[in-house]
Amino acid sequence: MKTRTVKVEKKEEYTKYEIARIIGARALQISMNAPVLAKLSKEDFERVNYDPLKIAMLEFKSGILPISVKRPYPMPKDAEGSEEIALEEESDEETASEEAAEELE
Predict the structure, then answer these.
(1) What is the pLDDT of residues 13-56, one digit of tens each?
(2) 54, 48 Cβ separation under 8 angstroms
(3) Are residues 34 and 81 in the same domain?
């Protein structure tokens, strides 16, 4: 039995909500007469009944859509710690100014 190795590019994985948004946005563009990015023959268009949603799905599955997803990232733990340090430094300054005020009296 022969084994073939296939080099696979790592594609970005999307959630089902992101996929729905991407396909919906592209279908809207196609319905507004945007050029179709996939190379489809007349038979392919007839097979999908010129449906923009199905054309958008074909484009998404082929991976040629130039649409990206921006995801918010959680705040790193280091940033949370630096806020605590800044608060501690402020309290040290307050105690130092209080001590200086006591010395003047």
Answers:
(1) 889 999 999 999 999 999 999 998 888 889 988 888 889 999 99
(2) yes
(3) no
